[in-house]
C-alpha cells in the first residue's frame, strides 16, 4: 500500500488496524524474526543482482567507447538528403559487427538526432539510467 510502505519493510501500525484489516486481507503479516531475516536476505540478493548488472553495463560502455565511428551507406538525392531514415536496428547491427554484442533494444535506448542529410552525427546509447555511451555515426552516400 502506498501510504503504509513498500513490500519487505517493517512498519508500526495500530493493533486493531493490523488484526482487523491488514492481516485478514493479506496486505501485511506479522514481523517475526524469521520473516525479517528472509526479507533482509531477499533485499541483499536484489542488491547483488543490481551490482552485477551495473558492472556488466560499465563493461559494455567501455567496449562501446572503443568504437571510433560507425558508417552507414544510404541512397541520396538532391542536396545530399538521404532517402528514408536510419533505424535503431541498423545501428545495433553495425555495433554487433564491431564488438560482437547484440544490444537488446528493449533494455538499451538509442537516442539519435533526426538524420536527413549525409554527415557525422552523435548517437547516445542509454545502457542504464546513469551509464551512457556516445558513438559517432557517419552517413555516407551510395550513389558515388
UniProtKB/TrEMBL annotation:
Positions of the Ribosomal protein L9 domain: 5-32
One annotated GO molecular function: structural constituent of ribosome
Pfam families: Ribosomal_L9_C (PF03948), Ribosomal_L9_N (PF01281)
Keywords noted in UniProt: Chloroplast, Plastid, Ribonucleoprotein, Ribosomal protein, RNA-binding, rRNA-binding
Primary subcellular site in the record, as a coarse category: plastid
GO terms for biological process, alphabetical: translation
GO cellular component, one term: chloroplast
Localisation per UniProt entry: Plastid, Chloroplast
Keyword field contains Chloroplast: yes
SUPFAM superfamilies in the cross-refs: L9 N-domain-like, Ribosomal protein L9 C-domain
Keyword presence, Ribonucleoprotein: yes
Family: Belongs to the bacterial ribosomal protein bL9 family.
NCBIfam families named in the record: L9
Job description of the protein: Binds to the 23S rRNA.
HAMAP family reported in the protein's UniProt record: Ribosomal_bL9
UniProt-recorded name of the protein: Large ribosomal subunit protein bL9c
Amino acid at each position: 500500500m502506498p501510504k503504509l510502505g513498500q513490500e519487505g519493510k517493517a512498519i508500526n501500525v495500530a493493533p486493531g488496524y493490523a488484526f482487523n484489516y491488514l492481516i485478514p486481507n493479506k496486505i501485511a503479516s506479522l514481523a517475526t524474526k524469521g520473516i525479517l531475516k528472509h526479507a533482509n536476505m531477499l533485499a541483499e540478493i536484489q542488491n547483488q543482482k543490481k551490482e552485477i548488472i551495473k558492472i556488466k553495463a560499465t563493461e559494455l560502455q567501455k567496449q562501446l567507447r572503443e568504437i571510433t565511428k560507425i558508417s552507414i551507406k544510404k541512397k541520396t538525392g538532391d542536396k545530399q538528403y538521404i532517402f528514408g531514415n536510419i533505424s535503431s536496428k541498423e545501428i545495433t547491427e553495425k555495433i554487433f559487427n564491431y564488438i560482437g554484442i547484440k544490444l537488446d533494444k528493449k533494455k538499451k535506448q538509442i537516442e539519435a538526432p533526426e538524420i536527413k542529410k549525409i554527415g557525422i552525427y552523435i548517437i547516445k546509447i542509454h545502457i542504464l539510467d546513469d551509464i551512457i555511451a556516445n558513438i559517432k555515426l557517419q552517413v555516407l552516400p551510395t550513389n558515388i
